[in-house]
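hiii, so i know i said id send this last week but things got crazy w the move. better late than never?? heres the sequnce for the chain we talked about at the cafe, plus the structure i predicted for it. fair warning i was half asleep when i ran it
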Amino acid sequence: MDATELQMLFAAGERNFQNVDLSAANLSCINLQGIDFGRANLRHVNLRWANLNGASLRWADLRGADLSWANLEGADLSSANLRGTKMPDGTIHD
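okay and structure toks below
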């Protein structure tokens, strides 16, 4: 799946994107409120300024992703792999 297909499906009302592979996709500035990225491969994804309010990122692989200025209010990051992820406050997760 690529970023364009994700946006089209999300706009049509789909919210379940568990196990999807979007590695290195550019999802910056996109509204993904309430999306379910459980166990998704989001390695090196650009999520700068993305709205992930209420999103499920449980067990997602976010290694090296860029979440700068992303809205993570209410997002579930339980057991997500955040190694090397740039967080909204500008820090790099260990």
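btw The chain has one domain: 1-94. thought thatd interest u
miss u guys!!
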